[in-house]
Amino acid sequence: MSQNPARDATAAAPASAAPEPARAGIDPRGPRFGAGVTAVLLAVVLLLAGTSGALWLLLVVVLSFALGAARGPQGTWQGVLFRALVRPRLAPPNELEDPRPPRFAQLVGLVITGVGLVLGLAGVGAAVPVAAALALVAAVLNAVFDFCLGCELYVVLRRLRPSAA
Question: What does pTM read for this prediction?
């Protein structure tokens, strides 16, 4: 089993199991690329802490997460960059990833950075670098180690949800 629960959700079922309906998957390298771009933006937010530039750049990150939460990571501007510039240079992925966990991870990122932005606009200066640092840790874990914290949270919450009878 891979380290990424989103990829595990689309792993092939044993031959004896009844086939599941086909589910669209995404290239798992796309969200990792997006996380790398986001990590760079968040690092710059930290370098600009205390300036209006930090607020504007955090707004870009918040809007990116909003796109990802609404359309999935493949629907963000980072996803467009990946499909246009990176994926054509790569071999096809070995397996596809369930888009639901990365989409939930985008929502988690939106909440964290959104709260930081709102508090920053309200005059709580420390909120911007704290939110950026929290999101940066998650983005680096995803981009560098293929460990998606939001995806892990998605899996835990799905397990805690009562099953339909």
Answer: 0.84
